[in-house]
């Protein structure tokens, strides 16, 4: 009972839908039986359920016999009649599987992990894609090049200063937004694919800050501190998805210990508040321009500025609009008179 009180209920159960009877139902049955005899005080063993999707691949037959996908080309060359079946979950019986060892030897384990988590939300099936795996490898390679070519500068960079110019502040804001997004996607929403997408967007921002047309910028001390902060945070956010690469780069930056023992980064709420927002301005439901306004601007001022845009004035002429619909922080839709 003491152990049960400590560990139960478990916060998350993850299992395939085909395990709903044998695993899930039996776990629930035994929990209720133990509750009835007074051993545990809970009604359910798990607080949340996630049924993960399957990894799928096309199946192949050569002269009526199942063959592995990588054998299809040789079978065709040998004059055998090769049939391509539908895409379905991988199974040993139909041989529509991919050898993970071959993938690891070619791209590394991190690439395989990253592809599986990025290809689709965890609850959806994914279709195995060699091009998708290669895309994940290119993404990780970009991070490796970004860090290693400035390794000495990043390792020697000082702490992030309090006062930042606009360019440095822009990257720091992006870092804090990404921390908030990845944390929410991974912990609350369990949407690992969108968490990785957020890290990819952060890498694009870091790359734009770091270089011009592929060549490193000349960064002053403040710029190097900002870049080091962004790179270190990127590695922390990526480490659950690509732990080997991130730990290697973390060590090369002169950091001690494994990233799994480093506290998860926390975002600054103040950095999530934008000074300005860009609004889409529509007339008759079609985009006619954009408007950048202060985040705290009055609605009347925003509507007046939108009506003054050349693309809007052209459609209105001398007739005042019949209606102006303002969706805060997103768009303005003008209905002509």
Topology summary:
Elements: H1 2-7, E1 13-14, H2 20-36, E2 49-50, E3 55-62, E4 65-67, H3 72-77, E5 82-89, H4 100-107, H5 109-118, E6 126-127, H6 130-148, H7 151-156, H8 166-189, H9 192-210, E7 211-212, E8 215-216, H10 221-238, H11 243-252, E9 276-283, E10 286-294, H12 299-307, H13 310-316, E11 323-327, E12 331-335
Parallel strand pairs: 1-2, 3-6, 9-12
Antiparallel strand pairs: 3-4, 3-5, 7-8, 9-10, 11-12
Helix pairs in contact: 4-5, 5-6, 8-9, 8-10, 9-10, 10-11
Q: Which properties best describe this structure?
A:
337 residues, alpha/beta, four-stranded mixed beta sheet, 13 helices, globular
Task: Please give a structural write-up.
With 337 residues, the chain is an alpha/beta fold. 47% of the residues lie in helices and 17% in strands. It is built from 13 helices and twelve strands. A hairpin with a 2-residue loop joins strand 3 and strand 4 (65-67).
């Amino acid at each position: 009972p003491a152990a049960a009180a400590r560990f139960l209920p478990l916060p998350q159960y993850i299992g395939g839908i085909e395990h709903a009877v044998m695993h899930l139902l039996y776990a629930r049955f035994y929990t209720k039986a133990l509750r009835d005899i007074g051993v545990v005080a809970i009604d359910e063993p798990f607080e949340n359920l996630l049924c993960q999707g399957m990894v799928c691949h096309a199946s192949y037959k050569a002269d009526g016999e199942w063959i592995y996908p990588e054998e299809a080309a040789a079978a065709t060359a040998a004059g055998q009649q090769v049939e391509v079946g539908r895409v379905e979950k991988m199974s040993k019986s139909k041989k529509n599987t991919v050898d993970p060892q071959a993938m690891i030897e070619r791209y590394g384990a991190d690439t395989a992990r990253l592809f599986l988590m990025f290809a689709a939300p965890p609850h959806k099936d994914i279709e195995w894609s060699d091009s998708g795996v290669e895309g994940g490898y290119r993404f990780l390679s970009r991070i490796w090049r970004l860090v290693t070519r400035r390794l000495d500068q990043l390792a020697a960079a000082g702490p992030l200063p309090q006062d930042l110019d606009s360019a440095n502040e822009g990257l720091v804001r992006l870092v804090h937004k990404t921390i908030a997004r990845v944390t929410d996607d991974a912990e609350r929403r369990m949407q690992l694919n969108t968490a990785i997408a957020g890290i990819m967007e952060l890498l694009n921002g870091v790359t734009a800050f770091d270089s011009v047309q592929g060549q490193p910028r000349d960064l002053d001390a403040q710029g190097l501190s900002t870049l080091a902060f962004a790179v270190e945070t990127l590695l922390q956010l990526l480490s659950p998805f690509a732990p080997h690469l991130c730990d290697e780069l973390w060590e090369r930056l002169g950091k001690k210990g494994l990233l799994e023992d480093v506290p998860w980064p926390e975002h600054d709420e103040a950095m999530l508040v934008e000074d300005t927002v860009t609004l889409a301005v529509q007339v008759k439901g079609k985009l006619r321009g954009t408007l950048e306004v202060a985040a705290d601007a009055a609605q009347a001022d925003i509507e007046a500025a939108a009506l003054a845009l050349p693309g809007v004035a052209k459609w209105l002429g001398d007739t005042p609009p019949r209606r102006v619909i303002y969706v805060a922080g997103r768009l303005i839709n003008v209905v002509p008179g």
